[in-house]
């Protein structure tokens, strides 16, 4: 970055950002690049395909509900900075709302963007998500820096990558934009839509049919009268129809077969699960291969959530924290333990082993189960023998009668 670019980066972005925010706030016009998450193809598919809506909403809800905290050398940090970031990243949203918006954008458009505002000391001030359809990553061939072009009201604004939180799906070599999952599913969605429309049309147009049989001795006038009477009955969709001798009326059975729709639905769900890298049981399909909910969540975390969480953590650590803060030991981290807790039996076994082997305290277990810590001995590490403080002199442990005599002497 040359001297001119540095000057532009330091002086211009803040005024541009503030003017855009002011314009959007005064006009209350969120039809531009701010505030709108759903747009175009992604919008239509998300609003009309219940399977895609289901998986996108589940992924967004799971990630936004995870505890997101700042740590310093494994110790949780609670200060004014973290309070503002979590509860007031901007005047309208909390951080979990922003993460939900970013995750919905990422899982529809393939990219989620949020603009970082900084104060005069270049410290974090606010975070605002915006519509990914108005953003285009651009690489500066002179400096090699990545910039983002944001279109707003017919004008283009440029922001350096250090001011943009960008979370995305995988991108091809040389591309900075993530691939849209809905774009990948385009053919599958069209096929599923065609099957549904055909089946609906068949159900709507399928009318009752009859076989009208009469003997050969029925003359032409009587035959015309029988047909006219039956036509009237059919058009009126009911009424009284007198069946005379020599005339037989038999209804043709036309049963709607839903088997083809079920097969098509299962195929579509499997394809959606494959594209979003989630167990198909999350789309209410299959799931017989899992013996417990713990196995399902472990697979979900391994194949999907771990990489997504790491991407959010890296972006926040790199762009919200300063270099000095990172060097001092500060970092952001999602807590995935809640998803991997398993059932009651699995948790009891885990806590029992941790307590008896001396790597968990009773207070840590109580905190994990949302109970208040007790302090004192409950905050100490114990070891089985049976259960003494880990730092206790072994000679003082009354494990045998000999030890008891030694202690008494």
What does this structure look like?
A 3-stranded antiparallel beta sheet has the order 2-1-11. The chain has 409 residues and is an alpha+beta fold. It contains 14 helices and 13 strands. The longest helix is centred in the last third of the chain and has 27 residues, at 293-319. It folds into 3 domains: 3-180, no CATH class; 207-253; 343-409, no CATH class.
Compact summary:
The protein is an alpha+beta fold. The chain has helices at residues 3-27, 40-48, 50-65, 80-87, 95-108, 181-184, 186-205, 220-235, 259-276, 293-319, 323-327, 344-357, 362-368, 401-408; strands spanning 68-72, 75-77, 111-118, 124-130, 135-139, 146-152, 155-160, 164-168, 209-214, 247-252, 330-334, 382-383, 388-389. It holds the Pfam family Phage_portal.
Q: Can you give the helix content as a percent range?
A: 40-55%
Strand order of the biggest β-sheet? 2-1-11
Give the averaged pLDDT, no decimals: 77
Alpha-carbon distance between the termini? Answer: 78 Å
Task: Return the string of H and E elements.
Answer: HHHEEHHEEEEEEHHEHEHHHEHHEEH
* Rg (CA only): 33 Å
Q: Provide the structure class.
A: alpha+beta
Distinct helical segment count: 14
Largest sheet: 3 strands, antiparallel
Q: How many strands in all?
A: 13
Could you say which overall geometry the principal axes of the C-alpha atoms support? flat
Tally of individual domains: 3
Which segments are poorly predicted (pLDDT under 50) over 5 or more consecutive residues?
1-6, 20-41
Q: Tell me the β content.
A: 15-25%
Pfam families: Phage_portal (PF04860)
Protein name: Phage portal protein
């Amino acid at each position: 970055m040359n001297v001119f670019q540095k000057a532009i980066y330091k002086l211009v972005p803040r005024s541009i950002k503030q003017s855009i925010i002011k314009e959007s706030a005064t006009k209350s016009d969120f039809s531009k690049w701010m505030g709108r998450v759903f747009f175009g193809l992604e919008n239509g598919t998300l609003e009309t395909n219940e399977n895609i809506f289901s998986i996108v909403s589940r992924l967004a809800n799971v990630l936004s509900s995870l505890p997101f905290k700042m740590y310093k050398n494994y110790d949780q940090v609670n200060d004014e900075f973290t309070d503002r970031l979590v509860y007031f990243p901007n005047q309208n949203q909390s951080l979990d709302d922003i993460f939900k918006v970013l995750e919905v954008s990422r899982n529809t458009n393939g990219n989620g963007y949020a603009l970082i505002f900084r104060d005069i000391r270049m410290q974090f001030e606010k975070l605002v998500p915006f519509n990914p359809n108005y953003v285009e990553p651009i690489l500066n061939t002179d400096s090699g820096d990545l910039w983002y072009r944001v279109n707003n009201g017919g004008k283009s604004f440029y922001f350096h990558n250090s001011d943009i939180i960008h979370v995305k799906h995988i991108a091809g070599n040389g591309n900075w934009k993530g691939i849209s999952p809905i774009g990948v599913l385009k053919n599958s969605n069209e096929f599923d839509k065609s099957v549904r429309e055909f089946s609906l049309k068949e159900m709507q147009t399928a009318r009752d049919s009859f076989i009208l049989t009469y003997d050969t001795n029925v003359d032409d006038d009587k035959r015309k009268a029988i047909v006219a009477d039956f036509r009237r009955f059919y058009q009126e969709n009911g009424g009284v129809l007198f069946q005379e001798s020599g005339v037989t009326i038999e209804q043709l059975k036309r049963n709607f077969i839903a088997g083809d729709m079920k097969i098509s639905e299962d195929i579509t769900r499997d394809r959606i699960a494959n594209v979003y890298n989630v167990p198909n049981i999350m789309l209410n399909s299959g799931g017989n291969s899992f013996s417990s909910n713990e196995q399902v969540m472990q697979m979900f975390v391994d194949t999907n959530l771990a990489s997504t969480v790491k991407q959010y953590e890296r972006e926040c650590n790199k762009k919200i924290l300063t270099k000095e803060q990172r060097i001092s030991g500060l970092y952001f981290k999602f807590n995935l333990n809640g998803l991997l807790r398993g059932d009651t039996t699995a948790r009891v076994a885990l806590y029992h082993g941790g307590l008896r082997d001396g790597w968990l305290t009773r207070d840590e277990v109580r905190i994990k189960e949302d109970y208040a810590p007790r302090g004192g001995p409950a905050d100490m590490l114990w070891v089985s023998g049976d259960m003494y403080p880990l730092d206790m002199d072994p000679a003082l442990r009354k494990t045998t009668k000999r030890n008891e005599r030694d202690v008494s002497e």
